[in-house]
Design a protein that fits this description.
The chain has 72 residues and is mainly α. Helix content is 69%, strand content 0%. The chain is built from five helices and no strands. Helix 2 crosses helix 3. The two termini are 27 Å apart. The mean pLDDT is 81.
Length: 72
């Protein structure tokens, strides 16, 4: 299986197909996870007032330093 095939399964595959592919190809799973994380870090995240209020409610005063990846 190639990386593009594994990535397609992540998006379009069933849970059973993806589970089987992850067990058979842990290296492709790791690479896919790295690609997803890189895209998330590079994407501009828009924050509206409700998102900001949720952060304030959690006690996160330093919104600029908030790590969105931890919540995903």
């Amino acid at each position: 299986m190639e990386q593009w095939e594994f990535n397609r399964l992540v998006i379009h595959g069933t849970e059973k197909e993806l589970d089987k592919a992850m067990q058979e190809h842990p290296d492709l799973m790791d690479k896919c996870a790295e690609e997803i994380q890189a895209r998330l870090w590079e994407s501009p995240l828009m924050m509206d007032e409700m998102d900001y209020q949720r952060l304030v409610d959690r006690g996160l005063d330093e919104v600029e330093e908030y790590n969105y990846i931890d919540d995903l």
